[in-house]
Task: structure prediction
Amino acid sequence: MKLIYGVKDKPKFSQVIVFAIQQLLAIMAATLVVPVIITSNTGYEMSSVAALFGAGVGTIVYLLFTKFKSPVFLGSSFAFIGSMTAAFAGGVSMALGYLGLIIGAVLAGLVYVIIALVVKFAGVKWINKLMPAAVIGPTVTIIGLSLAGNAIGDLQKAPAGGNSKIAIICGLVTLAVTIICSVYGKKMIRLIPFIMGILSGYAVAAIFTVIGIVAGVDALKVIDFSAFKALVDGGVGLHTFITVPNFTFVTAFKGFGELTGSYILTLFAAYVPVAFVVFAEHLADHKNISSIIETDLLEDPGLHRTLLGDGVGSMAGAIFGGCPNTTYGESVGCVAITGNASIVTILTAAVGAIAISFLAPFVAFVNSIPSCVMGGVCMALYGFIAVSGLKMIKNVDLEHNANLFTVSVILIAGIGGLSLTFGKVTITSIACALILGILVNLMVNKSRKQN
Result:
């Protein structure tokens, strides 16, 4: 898709605000849900709005390191969920667990820093040889396809006692409006299809819910309005509009007295191997966004800068929200679908993430958006990620068996869900597929030279 706004373009202020909200809506659900998963896994409460604040800080750090040339938003990384859970294992206190989240993120970030130094002095040509389009293209495709189950699962998800068919209707309305706005909309509407889709899906869900409440039919209740009710339960006041996130570093400061060498080793084993796995996904994401903006980010601003931005941004994000950050495929998909790669939009979204983490009504609204509505949006977002990977291999000669085997192995390993677990460390299906693809590519590379 031809870009409407390039990386350096600056839309009007009023437009930027709307575009930034759209980026936030695209990344917010996933960013907020990671702390919820950790809370569920460990019993120790983590703040979702603190994670959102941390994502905003991490994104600003990333933009600074990449010289404002890479239009990607950073959010809470799902890859580190097992690592974060390990930080609370063994009956550690909440203070020590929070401190462990920060130390673990710093250890993972240092992996990126070390790799960045290697890239700085060795260059990136070896990476391009190791991972050509025949490797990166299908890897990007399976990143999108691996999320397909999440999108469809959300699309069909209804509240307890709800009807999945009603949920699907709301999700499909969201998807249909998103598609219509993106394809047929005028310039401004075409740039905000996700906002239009989410608002339309939310409106339909609200209608069903109100009818369900009035008629006393639980099957029609799609939206849970309890988040709004909680705002006013204690009376209307400043707390109704302003909330202060439970920042990780505040509680973590109390855990220094409990810190031991064995605990640090546990964190090292839980975080560092995963950081190497996420590095592979970092490469795929940046190859993907590079193809969208038609600028090789591995060359300019350079892979060493994107790695430093991702690594240091992840450390900064964890200090506030506990969650290591990573570049978000949802953000990349948003850029691809809307044709808006303006870095000003990403920066405004990052500042917005920091600001709205203090605004209780907005957080309540986001928490009330039904999963089925977000599922409708994500069908488009994740699909575009998959298609962008296919675009990378459209010029690859698949008549050559060397390329055919490379692409085939990656697709089957990734879609089939091949993963390996060593103790507390899990190598994801995407990472396994990429590693296998690299090995196959090295195995058959000699045949390419002979031809």
Remarks:
- The chain is about 75% helix and 5% strand.
- Strands lie at 74-76, 325-327, 420-422, 425-427.
- The mean pLDDT is 86.
